[in-house]
Structure formats: structure tokens, C-alpha cells
Amino acid sequence: MRCPYCHHSESRVVDSRASEEGVAIRRRRECLACERRFTTYERIEEEPLIIIKKDGRREPFKREKIINGLRKACEKRPLSFETFEKIADEVEQEIRKRNETETPSSVIGELIMERLKEIDEVAYVRFASVYRQFKDLDIFMRELQHLLGAKKKQE
Predict the structure, then answer these.
(1) Record's Pfam families (predicted)?
(2) Domain segments of the chain: what residues?
(3) What is the pTM of this model?
């Protein structure tokens, strides 16, 4: 590791510890030439996830888009920002478990809806109405009836 002060190429590790909830290792180093200390972080290099949009375009996965969509669907609902982050984390983990570098946006939408259905039915219907692009009231009513039917089966 090159020293940021004198650019000497050798240093020794003084201290190592887990950082960022175990996702990275923080190392305190000391330059063998100038003896100044500096910090480095070691992280797993993950392959970037690519999302295939409905029109065939490809773009990098951005968890912020999930959080923004959830924020809109859950407006004036009793859900916290931490809940949105948890859903975004779960969706990203689920996609990474599949070991595919490209994922259709429809898969992401379905994963989000599964989680919203369990947490808040109103937010689920709001999200589904935008995501599934309900064209008329009949389609919207069928989704509500499906939701009510599933709820009755659980009781």
C-alpha cells in the first residue's frame, strides 16, 4: 500500500477491525519510511447488477430508485425510512443470490410487492397500481379482489 504522504510503497498494519457492519475491514497502517499513519479500507468487489427495463434498455441497479418508489407508495402511511431501506436491502440481496448479472425490472417490482403486501396493504395497492399500470377500474378491482381473497384464506 503506497503512503499518501511520501508515496513509499511499504507500510505495516498497526490495527485491523471490521467496519460498516462487517462489509469492510478498516486497517490503520504506518509508513516504513516516514512513519506517518493512515487508514485504508478493504471491501469485497461485487459485480455490478444490471437491470433490464421493460423497453429493453439496460441500466445499473440503484437501490435509491427502490427507496424513492417506496417513499411515493407509502406517502402518509405509518412506515419508516428504515423500513424502506430494509426492503431495498432484501431485494438487492435476493437479486445477488440469483448469481445473474442482469435482472429484468419486473422481477424487482414483484419482489418489492411481495414485501409491501406483508407490511402495508394500502402501500402495496398504491405501488401495484403504478407498477402494473392499471389502465381502468376493472383491472384495479380484480387486484383488490385478489388481495381480499388471499387475506380471507389466511384467516
Answers:
(1) ATP-cone, Zn_ribbon_NrdR
(2) 11-43, 50-154
(3) 0.63
